[in-house]
Amino acid sequence: MTVSRGPAPHTTPDPLAYGAEATGDGSRGGPPAEAADAGPEERLARLGGSWTWLLGSAVTTLVPGILILVWPDETLHVLAVLIGLYLLVTGGFRFVAAFAREHGDRLAGLLIAVVYVLAGVLCLRHPLQTIAALSLITGAVWLVSGMLTGWAALAAKGMPHRGFVLGVSALAVVAGVVVLALPSESAVALTRLLGLWLVLLGVAELVLAMALRSALGKNRSDAGAGRPTV
């Protein structure tokens, strides 16, 4: 327990990194002069550790899920494009967010980002545009990313909202297992299932983003009042 004289470094969950060090304004700690001269890695760390980055990831997950549920009878090509773009964009979010983690824990975040990007490319390839292939790829990504995120959360014992992060990772694991376990005879059923899981995961990340915003606001208020911060 230390008494801060200003915005203090604070470990915060991230949509993808879940363990960024952020100050009260959602950026990594450090004097203003250092922030002005920060290199690309430090800038990525501040960006990836902000609650708005987590919000962007949540929206990226939520929007495709809503579109799939609203138009479940669209062509398989449209579904492949939606899921492929979701995976690619989410991979980009996770790549940036990985830099908000400590160097020792950064590998898991970068690995998740690579898995998302590779899966997105596979979904956009024409030969793989079958509902079974899309379900297999998406389910595998959710399972792997959920396990890696859960492992990172368990390793960071001082992480705020650690229970939330573990809950999101558990939801991703369950989504991956369910999608991989179901038969592929019913394309409509699997399409709706994919859309439903995307919405659930997006809402979970949205709640986490709002919790992070509240925590950062409280941390900034406590720092300004000179109250002890962790």
TrEMBL record:
Q: Is Glycoprotein a UniProt keyword of this protein?
A: no
GO CC terms of this entry: plasma membrane
Q: Provide the organism lineage as a comma list.
A: Bacteria, Bacillati, Actinomycetota, Actinomycetes, Kitasatosporales
Supply the InterPro entries for this chain. Answer: Acid_resist_chaperone_HdeD, DUF308_memb
Keyword set, alphabetical order? Membrane, Transmembrane, Transmembrane helix
Q: Which Pfam families match?
A: DUF308 (PF03729)
Give the protein name, as stated in the record: HdeD family acid-resistance protein
| Superkingdom of source | Bacteria
Specify the species. Answer: Streptomyces actuosus
Ranges where the record places region Disordered: 1-39
